[in-house]
Specification:
CATH architecture of chain B: Orthogonal Bundle
Number of strands of chain A: 0
Low-confidence stretches of chain A: 238-251
Distance between the termini of chain B: 35 Å
Strand content of chain B: under 5%
Largest interface: A-B, 103 and 101 residues
CATH superfamily of chain B: MetI-like
CATH class of the domain at 66-242 in chain A: Mainly Alpha
Mean pLDDT of chain A: 84
Strand order of the largest sheet of chain B: 1-2
Distance between the termini of chain A: 32 Å
Number of helices of chain B: 14
Shape of chain A: globular
Number of strands of chain B: 2
Order of helices and strands of chain A: HHHHHHHHHHHHHHHH
CATH class of chain B: Mainly Alpha
Helix content of chain B: 55-70%
CATH superfamily of the domain at 66-242 in chain A: MetI-like
Largest sheet of chain B: 2 strands, antiparallel
Radius of gyration of chain A: 25 Å
Number of helices of chain A: 16
Low-confidence stretches of chain B: none
Shape of chain B: flat
CATH topology of chain B: MetI-like fold
Mean pLDDT of chain B: 86
Oligomer: heterodimer
Structural class of chain B: mainly alpha
Chain lengths: 292, 313
């Protein structure tokens, strides 16, 4: 099958992929381009793919001006790191225990885990539980708490442990006097790095991109996460534009480009870590693809 | 290990495997709090919820909350939109991804294929808030790229955030933009997992490329397609935890286009956040959970009939 001949069908296929890839990437380049365009040019010409007049004023403005953004960055990083770590730890312990044959109630509990995937109480009861009974409103904890376990991730991990952790190793460790928890910590986790890396990345991206929890539970703006801040900025500037009185003062600030700068800064970490993210995503997806 | 035959078998089992049950405990506790206790909270749907009195002391009002929702015009609109869009999402999303994953093997260059894959996959990592910014850059009435282009060709600018019709296309396109690359990457993982011996044998027997694709590749990755299909069905009515952010963020909460952009989730979210109507949003959430449950169970039954190995349970 090693024909290097360039055929018309190959050209058509490549052309199609080039068009699709542009469809995926060009809109992002537009945002990037707006962020480095001079504000006056935007007001005259609107948005364009190639900046007519290059300017970093908006970056200077955003980076020097507000501590809100820095603050949101810090909150988001804390939530993402702590959330991902705890999620992996709690879910993998549960998944590992469920994967062991000697645990008699594993089937019942597995079903309960699975059932939570099929049916849920919805957002309102959870909202009341977290705010009224657990008093989590306006705490950083509420941004992490609801997502510490996920049925899908537990099922994937359980299947991974079942297929990759040999009984013999666990039993050998047991004979050597290792407790179950230390076997899990010292033997099971190290050989499960691929699945942990992939699920960890999914969870991290989820926490990083979550605006919803913050919008429901956080009113204190020192606890805003990046995505929610981004969402609020969009709405605020709209508000400014619909008021003629305020339009002038809005024009003097690089508000149009500043908005896009914030957007670029919010996805910056994802762009920077993309090669790494992609590698593990693909690896883990291959794992998941092999029948759950 | 001592086994105590006098104790009940339950206590026996727990003490025998206490370290395993201990390791399960935190996860089960979180699941109890996050997933199971709220299920009992569904009674709110049948009550006039009063935050001061709490759930138990609030007055029972029967089906009033449901009535309020179903009598309104929104009930049909949001249910229709939810099903309409998700049906399109699943068909086009999985369909294009399947096509791409097969064609990615035929570009003639490994480097090109992996470049396409990287570019296609990237949007999956972005949030719908970022999606909102991107779409706004394209569709903004006075500055948006698309209106600029329309004006360049001497056409009238379109008020995108006030015209409902185009959103029937915008929403599916946005969905594709974000998800097709992700699905394609999963399918590619499946396709590359197929042993090359099958293709070699087929070639010797004189099978054309097209026959190889329809007879070998597609049947062999079908289980992955079905798994994703079931997961996507499950997500439709997954409530707040599903991927409905696009319906809230992309149309920027613009009233005139609700007829084509409002779905059950955005409806619940708005009645909770803006109107603080706990009873009705809980009733609508309940309705959503039930429909979702039925849909998942039904599609799983269908899959079971067609391919028992791929069914979820």
């Amino acid at each position: 099958m090693a024909k290097n001949k360039i055929t018309t069908s190959k050209i058509i296929i490549n052309l199609m992929f080039i068009i699709y890839a542009l469809f995926c990437i060009v809109p992002l380049i537009l945002v990037l381009s707006i962020s480095v365009t001079d504000e006056m040019v935007i007001f005259q010409n609107g948005y364009s793919l190639i900046p007519a007049k290059f300017s970093l004023a908006a970056y200077k403005y955003v980076l020097s001006g507000s501590s809100t953004l820095l603050n949101a960055y810090i909150v988001t990083i804390i939530v993402t790191v702590v959330g991902t770590f705890c999620h992996l730890f709690i879910s993998s312990m549960l998944a590992y225990s469920l994967s062991r044959k000697e645990v008699k109630y594993a089937n019942v509990i597995s079903f309960l885990v699975f059932f939570a995937l099929l049916f849920n109480g919805g957002i309102v009861p959870q909202y009341i539980l977290l705010t009224k009974y657990l008093h989590m409103k306006n705490t950083i904890l509420v941004l992490i708490f609801p997502y510490l376990v996920s049925s899908v991730n537990i099922i994937i991990m359980k299947n991974f442990f079942k297929s990759t952790v040999p009984d013999s190793i666990v039993e050998a460790a047991r004979i050597d006097g290792s407790g179950e928890f230390s076997t899990y910590l010292k033997i099971v986790l190290p050989i499960s790095k691929p699945v942990l890396a992939t699920i960890g990345l999914f969870v991290a991206v989820f926490y990083w991109n979550d605006w919803f929890t913050c919008s429901l539970y956080i009113e204190d703006n020192s606890l805003y996460v990046l995505q929610f801040l981004l969402q609020s900025i969009m709405n605020n500037i709209q508000y400014l534009q619909s008021n003629d009185m305020l339009q002038k003062s809005a024009a003097s600030l690089p508000s149009e480009s500043a908005r896009m700068v914030t957007c670029i800064l919010a996805i910056g970490p994802i762009i920077l870590t993309y090669p790494f993210l992609q590698k593990y995503f693909v690896k883990g997806l291959t794992l998941g693809a092999v029948k759950e | 290990m001592k086994s105590n035959k006098k104790g009940s078998s339950f206590i026996n089992e727990i003490s025998k495997n206490k370290s395993f049950y201990g390791m399960m405990l935190p996860g089960m506790l979180f699941m109890l709090i996050v997933n199971y206790i709220p299920m009992f909270g569904l009674v709110i749907a049948f009550k006039e919820y009063n935050p001061v009195k709490g759930i138990l002391a609030s007055k029972w009002i029967g089906l009033k909350n449901f009535e309020f929702f179903f009598v309104s015009n929104s009930a049909f609109t949001v249910t229709f939109n939810t099903i309409f869009y998700n049906a399109i999402f699943i068909i086009t999303g999985l369909g294009f991804a399947l096509l791409f994953s097969v064609l990615l093997q035929e570009t003639g260059s490994k480097m090109m294929s992996s470049t396409y894959k990287s570019l296609m996959f990237f949007p999956y990592l972005l949030s719908w808030v970022v999606g909102q910014y991107i779409l706004f850059s394209l569709l903004s009435v006075d500055k948006g790229l698309i209106n600029n282009i329309l004006e360049f060709f001497g056409k009238e600018p379109v008020y995108w955030y006030a015209e409902s019709r185009p959103w029937r296309f915008i929403i599916p396109l946005a969905y594709m933009w974000k998800n097709v690359g992700y699905f394609a990457v999963i399918f590619v993982a499946g396709v590359t997992g197929i042993s090359s011996e099958y293709f070699e044998a087929a070639e010797i027997d004189g099978a054309s490329k097209f026959q190889q694709i329809t007879r070998i590749t597609i049947p062999l990755i079908m289980p992955i397609v079905i798994t994703l299909f079931l997961l996507q069905i499950g997500k439709i009515f997954y409530g707040a935890f599903g991927d409905w952010g696009m319906f809230y963020n992309l149309p920027m909460n613009s009233g005139p286009i609700f007829s084509t952009t409002d779905v059950i989730d955005t409806y619940v979210y708005r009645s909770l956040r803006l109107m603080n109507d706990f009873g009705m949003s809980s009733a609508v959430g309940f309705y959503q959970s039930i429909v979702g449950f039925i849909l998942v169970v039904a599609s799983n039954l269908m899959v079971k009939k067609y391919d028992p190995d791929s069914a979820m349970y």
